[in-house]
Model the fold of this input.
Amino acid sequence: MAETPKHKNKFGEFVRYVLGMPRSICVNFRCLPFRQAIHLPILVSHRTRCRSLRGEITITGPLKVGLVKIGLGTSQVVDFWRERTIIDLRGKVNFGGKCKIGAGSRIFVAESGTLSFSDNFHNSSHLTILCFKSITFGYDNGQSWHNTIMDSDQHAILDSDGKRINEDAPIIFGNRVWCGCHSTILKGTVVADNVIIGANSCVSGRHLESHVILAGNPAKTVKNGVDWK
Done:
């Protein structure tokens, strides 16, 4: 009998976990207390480059194998075996439950930065996060492919007196936020609960209304009274 696609997917997933086990063991025992590391709550793809693991990782809630998956999420348009994920963790990273960061993602947390994920965060692939100050995701957050989230302009802009006018600013996502592909979230952005961000949007500023769709550049409310699942 021919093997079903579901069985093939399960076998491929198992192979990816096995190939990444040496790197997963390294990340767990480098970044977590021993009593947590032995549970292997973080699974890392073998295609992940760890530029720095000098930061501090904390995990809250019940521990289990693979609670956090890095470089292991995929989508229909991702060649997992060729995509490389890069993590550079120098500051603080907090995981509040299940978290999946997809293949081809780039995660940088500066010494001054704090990156926080609540329960049930999911990204399909190619997520870029640059955290210099603070980036927080509420629970049930979904990020599509090729999204960029950064709380810093990375270059200083000065006024005529030489004073910087573009300081880093925190980014806060509420609960149940779905962000469409190829979107950019800029420093100082606040997004309320139950919000959909349309594809190719550029979001900045405070968006405090729930059950809306934000879209455009700059993003604004284009529809009210919506929900997603």
Observations:
- The mean pLDDT is 93.
- Residues 5-19 form the longest helix (15 residues).
- The first strand starts at residue 42 and ends at 44.
- DSSP finds three helices and 23 strands in the chain.
